[in-house]
Specification:
Elements (H helix, E strand, L loop, with lengths): L1 H23 L65 H26 L13 H10 L5 E3 L5 H6 L4 H9 L23 E2 L8 H14 L9 E6 L6 H12 L4 E7 L2 E2 L2 E2 L19 E6 L3 H18 L3 E6 L18 H10 L2 H11 L5 H24 L19 H17 L4 H7 L7 H4 L4
Parallel strand pairs: 1-2, 1-3, 3-4, 4-8, 7-8
Antiparallel strand pairs: 5-6
């Protein structure tokens, strides 16, 4: 027994010695010649093997920042090599400019009336008009849009009217979005393929990836439509951003991610939000086609989003566009931006790189626009905005019963039935006796009578 163990031991040592000699005789400058070529790569990667230790912190080969795509310079003139979209003729260009001009006129009125206490809340679009209208024009009207809260221009490009916008902002009985259940600026329209905006930051990003996945599974819309999600660079700091990017790139789903990098996440400047090269640098990490575009150049935005949409649908996976712009206005009516940035900085940006002035110069150089037309347009739009504002302000709020309607799809749950009955009893008991309720009920169509005396 001991002899057999000893023989086996010596035999094993001989084999090991032979293997050692074979390996040591292999040149050290490369892989063993006897290894098959696939051993030169890792099991789950096509990354080449190197012997030099090297760290990197940029997605560009030379370590420089990601470039920004532009067509028009700040004076509205095409830069060398800039490609003017062939489909943007005089009619299309005028429509884009008119939609851009409309936004600050709406903003001026709504911001002021909010300050007068006639409106609960408002968010302006100052400085981001080119990003909104340029991207809206490049999309198909039946692409699904999930906005953050500064995308009114996208919705109005699709046919959402001034009356719709005003009625929704006041939450009156003609509110086409939520029948008075939502805050101002929280728009939504099934007709215009614009999903309802919600207040929590970045929740729309993974939702968009899910919507796009549903489009991919629909044989009638597969290869035809994509889901487009708008968000600010601040929202890209939320975990939902990464969940949506991972979903869209891995499953995958045709999701067009459009980051509005306007320089501030409320009061936090971009240089305090991330250390890396903006939001665009994150796209390659998820294997996405990515582009950074001048968000104040409406033609560059149009070109970039049009091609991004094509890639998104053709490959059925996520594409990332980062639009570099500047938020000229305050974050919202709840914010005073001059508490964290100098007023002069804002005035300089408005003067040196105004997206409206840039595009207007482009139009005038081609004889497609004039100063007289500009004055007439602004006067006409201002009159229309004021007229629709007065109409919406005068309308009552919806009937109180609508509080419980169109909340859930399908059969109404028992809890809503109980709550409606309980509110009806309370209104019947205190509606005419307690002054705060009495005053508030007068603002509603029907003054709550439909709940106090429900019909069988």
């Amino acid at each position: 027994m001991m002899l057999r163990v000893a023989n086996a031991y010596h035999k094993t040592q001989s084999i090991l010695a032979c293997r050692t000699r074979c390996v040591s005789s292999t040149p050290t400058s490369g892989p063993a010649k006897s290894f098959p070529k696939e051993h030169e790569l890792l099991p789950s990667s096509q990354s080449p093997i190197i012997s030099t230790l090297k760290f990197f912190n940029s997605v560009t080969v030379d370590g420089s920042q990601i470039p920004t795509y532009r067509v028009l310079d700040s004076a509205g003139q095409p830069i060398e090599g800039g490609s003017i979209p062939e489909e943007i003729d005089e009619s299309m260009a005028r429509r884009m400019y008119e939609n851009m001009v409309q936004l600050p006129i709406i903003d001026n009125l709504m911001y002021n009336v909010q300050r007068q206490g006639k409106l609960a809340f408002y968010m302006t679009h100052y400085g981001e008009e080119a990003t909104l209208i340029g991207s809206a024009a490049a999309l198909a009207n039946d692409d699904e849009v999930l906005g953050q809260y500064r995308e009114l221009g996208v919705l109005m490009w699709r046919g959402f009217t001034l009356a719709d916008m005003m009625n929704s902002s006041f939450g009156n009985c003609e509110d086409p979005c939520s029948r008075g259940k939502q805050m101002p600026m929280h728009f939504g329209s099934r007709k215009h393929h614009f999903h309802m905006i919600s207040s929590p930051l970045a929740t729309q990003i993974p939702q968009a990836a899910g919507v796009a996945f549903a489009l991919r599974r629909d044989p009638h819309r597969r290869g035809k439509n994509c889901a487009v999600v708008y968000f600010g660079e601040g929202a890209a700091s939320e975990g939902d951003f990464h969940a949506g990017m991972l979903f869209a790139s891995t499953l995958p789903s045709p999701t067009l991610f459009l980051a509005r990098n306007n320089g501030f996440a409320i009061s936090t400047p971009a240089n305090e939000q991330y250390y890396g090269d903006g939001i665009a640098a994150r796209g390659p990490g998820y294997g996405m086609h990515t582009v950074r575009v001048d968000g104040n150049d409406v033609l560059a935005v149009y070109n970039a989003v049009k091609e991004a949409r094509r890639l998104c649908i053709a490959e059925g996976r996520g594409v990332l566009v980062e639009a570099m712009t500047y938020r000229v206005g305050h974050h919202s009516t709840s914010d005073d931006s001059f508490a964290y940035r100098p007023r002069q900085e804002v005035e300089d940006r408005k003067r040196l790189d105004n997206p409206l002035a840039r595009f207007r110069s482009f139009l005038e150089a081609r004889g497609w626009w004039s100063a007289e037309e500009d004055d007439a347009l602004k006067a006409r739009v201002k009159d229309e905005v004021l007229r629709e504002f007065r109409k919406a302000e005068a309308l009552p709020k919806p009937e109180v019963r609508e509080l419980f309607e169109q909340v859930y799809g399908g059969e109404e749950p028992w809890i809503l039935k109980e709550q409606r009955e309980e509110l009806g009893m309370l209104l019947k008991k205190y509606g005419d006796a307690w002054e705060p309720w009495k005053t508030e009920l007068k603002k509603h169509k029907g003054a709550g009578k439909e709940l106090m005396d429900p019909k069988p």
